[in-house]
Amino acid sequence: MTPEKEAAYRADLERALRAGHAILEKGGSSLDAVEATIRVLEDSPLFNAGKGAVFTHDGHNELDASVMDGATGKAGAVAGVRRIRNPITLARLVMEKSPHVMLIGTGAERFAREHGIAFVNPKYFWTEPRWKQLQEAKRAEAAERAKGRGTTAAVLPNAETEGFKFGTVGAVALDRAGNLAAGTSTGGMTNKRFGRVGDAPIIGAGTYASNATCAVSATGHGEYFIRSVVGHDIAALMEYRSMSVVEAADEVVMKKLVKLGGEGGVIAMDRFGNVAMPFNSTGMYRGWIDADGKVTIAIFHEP
Ligand code: ASP
Question: How far is CA 183 from CA 3, 77, 178, 215, 289, in A?
Answer without folding.
Answer: 29, 9, 17, 9, 16
